[in-house]
Amino acid sequence: MVKLHGVSISNYFSSAKAAFLEKNVPFEEVTVFPSQNDTVLAVSHMGKVPWIEVDGEILTETNVIYDYLEDINPKPRLYPIDPWQRAKVKELIRVIELYFDTPARRHIGAVYFGQGIDPSAKEQVRPAIENGLRALNHLALFSPYIAGDTFTFADITAYFMLNFTQMHTTKIYDWDMIGDTPVLKDYIDFIGERESLKGLTANMQAGFEALASK
Ligand SMILES: N[C@@H](CCC(=O)N[C@@H](CS)C(=O)NCC(=O)O)C(=O)O
Q1: Burial grade of 18 (CB within 10 A; 0-12, 13-18, 19 or more)
Q2: pTM above 0.85, yes or no
Q3: Which residues pair with 59 in a beta bridge?
Q4: Is there an atom of ligand 1 within 6 Å of 61 CB?
Q5: What is the pLDDT of residue 209?
Q6: Given a cut of 70, is residue 214 above it in pLDDT?
Q7: CATH number for domain 2-72, candidates 2.60.40.10, 2.40.440.10, 3.40.50.620, 3.40.30.10
Q8: How far is the CA of 10 from the centre of ligand 1 (A)?
Q9: Could you tell me the pLDDT band of residue 113, with boundaries at 50, 70 and 90?
Q10: 201: pLDDT confidence band, cut at 50, 70 and 90?
């Protein structure tokens, strides 16, 4: 059976796990924190989670894991068949990762680990996320799913990355990024009702609160 390694507090791990659940691909979950120690680096070259293990071989990178799941278990489809529509789904995934998760992550020490706020990050991250919002507003269809009338991997990424970003904007800027953007709020509320996502959000939140209280 495929093993999925990582930890529930991770938005990337949660995305990969939601993809397994949506695809109905059986998997065994192995809890491991990201680390730069030799044991983790021996399998996950950047020391990040998630990774999957298939017959003793390792595969990293959440989007690549999406692609693999789509190939081994085409139905239910989480990418459109049409090449253009498929590319548009991947574009959304890329934009959300690069222009929400990546800038927000610069505050991870302050948000998750009780470290001080980096002043240059404080100055630069909010405008970067505002640019991301502009891009998302341009690209997302929300009709009712992010890429159109069908649930795709982009919805999984959007759900976890935007909620992750929201934790940072709230804590660092007292900015309710999702609440202040009604179309996003309606979408996140709608998509959050999905069975595969509900439990994972609760797990992420619990992990976050446990860390924040330390
Ligand atoms: N590009 C990777 C990113 C994964 C990632 O950043 N995971 C975070 C947890 S949410 C991590 O392991 N961080 C530890 C680190 O950056 O060293 C993917 O798509 O899977």
Answers
A1: buried
A2: yes
A3: 52
A4: yes
A5: 75
A6: no
A7: 3.40.30.10
A8: 8
A9: confident
A10: confident
